[in-house]
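pasting for ref
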Amino acid sequence: MTQAHHTDLLHPFIFEQSAVRGNHVMLDKSLFKALEHQTLDPALKKVIGEFTAASVLLTATLKMQGKLILQLQSQGSLQLLVVECTSDLNIRATAKVSGELHGHGLTQWLTQGQLVITLMPEQGEPYQGIVPLEGDNIATMLENYMLRSQQIDTRLWLTAEGDRAAGLLLQKLPQQQEYDLDCWNRVQHLAGTVTDEELLNLEAITLLQRLFVEEDVRLFSGREVEAFCSCSQANVTNMLQMLGLAEVRSIIEEQGSVEIQCDFCHKHYVVDEDEALALFDEDDDHKVTH
């Protein structure tokens, strides 16, 4: 009899008497829902699954209300990989590919690539960090970013298969008193023995007991992860107003209406001529014609 697994959960944990904390995540239905309207090469789906798991793991380390946006940008066949995760652990993800994905791995799809991490708090100014890509997989790229840009020792183990993804994060907190000075080195080594199969199939408590059998680990309650797209008619309206009357009129003259499809959930929005022009004041006519 197969045991049911509690998936789509993020579990924080800490190592007692140390400055080391961690997160564990398993994604199933949430990842399927986030990607269900997108046609993705299986190898790309694995990468975007790992990227999504990483976004949840990293978001859970932040002390802010808002969202984290992870992006891989490149001039290669994989032009863009984007994952958003809110502080409520709502996720969405998409990718843009130019032509065929040649080769068998991430590094072969990327040319002149960079990693962009954006924090968008509900209050306060956004923050963005941009670094060249270092590493041949998602975990290593993010580890290098955290060390170079944030000066935080971070280790990630990520895997994905089909519509499932999972990950483990360890982080050494700076300026926190610790009594077990060897803990960081020790638990990194222990976590490094984890297999993809274990990550995908073992619940948090079982996995941590197996990896850290002699460690004093405190596991906290799980937080649910859900797929949620924030696109809306209001967002479309705002975008059209930012484009300006002249640009909107040009689109209408060419197409008869404004049609927009969300890159994430593929929801289709149509704004007819009357609705589009009603977004602008009559004075806007004079602004663009004079």
